[in-house]
Amino acid sequence: MTKRISLTQHLIEQQRLHNKIPSELRLLIEVVGRACKSISHAVGKGALGEVLGSAGSENVQGEVQKKLDVISNEILLEANEWGGHLAGMASEEMETIHPIPNRYPKGEYLLMFDPLDGSSNIDVNVSIGTIFSVLKAPDGMTTPSEKDFLQPGTKQVAAGYAVYGPQTVLVLTTGDGVHCFTLDREMGAWVLTQRDMQIPADTKEFAINASNARHWYPPVKRYVDEVLAGSTGPRGKDFNMRWIASMVADVHRILNRGGVFMYPADAREPDKAGKLRLMYEANPMAFIVEQAGGAATNGDQRILDIQPEKLHQRVAVFLGSKNEVERVTSYHKE
Ligand code: AHM
Ligand code: MG
Q1: What's the half-sphere exposure (Cβ side, CA atoms, 13 Å) at 120?
Q2: Is the Cβ–Cβ distance between 195 and 14 less than 8 Å?
Q3: 275 annotated ligand binder
Q4: Which residue's CA is minimally distant from atom 16 of ligand 1?
Q5: What per-residue confidence (pLDDT) applies to 141?
Q6: How many whole angstroms from 116 Cα to the centroid of ligand 2?
Q7: Of 57, 92, 104, 204, which one has the greatest count of Cβ atoms within 10 A?
């Protein structure tokens, strides 16, 4: 029988044998992993848990909150509040940051998350997930303010996502490759199932919400026109398209078999900077994708190099197989 390694064991090995992560970070990641198990459980109950449908509220970006968005946010806040590893948290579902209350010990990390990504898929039983990013709090900081979170993605010390799909998986990087853990539902444990995930540099698969095509800028239109032209077009090969409308699920497919994911800026409002948020969607995914040998840009620069200006800042995203990301990025520069 193959020897099974749990998330705890994997992290202890990273800490003890390779001296790659401090014990505080290991414990923090384990708490996030535990929270994701609870979210997976809530998601899995569906109609039986009376967790489907709208919560009757809006988040800071004016989006309707689903009950499970709110429940997942609370699970993450509660799980991480008292552990002593964090100075503060920020979430897609909260207007501003959540410093650790004074009744609990404080730690040196900052945690950001999108508690339940792919909200439009919740009620229709399509894969959804949690995305998270961990930063070090600035030296000497006592109580964090919003600006302490505004660090470029290169400063992330860990990032990951969980997908609540046919299987529940947790994909994680601490800057030493990308590893995937599957939730053993009987044991309640995360088990290492893929080590060192690698994204092939070339692909024949792309992902974009084509219903926005009329708003696209010329570089995106050119790239998509060329792949749609197939084997007789300039690319000389046929491409397949997939769009799940859950970034976690689209990125997970790309980590497993390659592909390029695009959520571009477009000509709306008057210059829509894309839909996805830099701090808790694009940055953690860019860190993971780069660690797996892929690339991630906003069409102009590497996502991880962007200096954030606002907590809920939006950003255009092109990520996945390196050669395709480089191609679509180069079209923006012509
Ligand atoms: P959410 O965080 O409100 O769920 O929005 C993010 C999601 C991504 O998971 C996905 O890639 C995108 O929105 C889908 O957008 P669209 O509705 O345009 O297909
Ligand atoms: Mg999201």
Answers
A1: 6
A2: no
A3: yes
A4: 245
A5: 85
A6: 7
A7: 92
- Which amino acid type is present at position 143? T
Instruction: Output the DSSP codes for 131-199.
Output: EEEEEEPPTT-SS--HHHH---GGG-SEEEEEEESSSEEEEEESSS-EEEEEEETTTTEEEEEESS---
Nearest to 248 by CA among 213, 212, 202, 207: 207
Report whether 136 belongs to an annotated binding site: no
Is 114 annotated as ligand-binding?
Answer: yes
> Measured between alpha carbons, how far is residue 84 from residues 98, 100, 114, 146, 155 in Å?
14, 9, 21, 20, 21
Q: How far apart are the first and last CA of the chain?
A: 55
**Tokens 């444990």 sit on residue:** 189
Tokens at 4, concatenated: 């099974």
Residues in the chain, overall count: 334
Q: What's the confidence (pLDDT) of residue 271?
A: 66
Kindly list the distances between the CA atom of residue 91 and the CA atoms of 111, 194, 291, in Å, as whole numbers in the listed order.
Answer: 9, 28, 24
For 102, the token pair is 């004074």
Residues with CB under 6 A from ligand 1: 63, 92, 114, 117-120, 209, 245-247, 263, 275
Distance (angstroms) between ligand 2 centre and the Cα of 177 equals: 23
Strands 98-99 and 86-91: antiparallel
Report the C-alpha gap between 295 and 286 in whole angstroms. 7
How many whole angstroms from 295 Cα to the centroid of ligand 2? 20
Instruction: Look at the block and give the residue holding tokens 């660090």.
Output: 151
Number of H-type helices and E-type strands within the chain: 8, 15
For residue 133, say whether it is annotated as part of any ligand binding site. Answer: no
Q: What are the b/e assignments for 214-233, b being 16+ CB within 10 Å?
A: eebbebbebbbebbeeeeee
- Please give the distance, rounded to the nearest whole angstrom, from the Cα atom of residue 298 to the centre of ligand 2: 17
pLDDT average per 10 residues of sequence, the chain (334 residues): 87 83 94 97 89 79 82 96 95 95 94 96 95 95 93 98 98 97 96 98 98 96 98 98 98 98 90 89 98 97 97 97 98 94
For ligand 1, atom 14: residue with the closest CA: 245
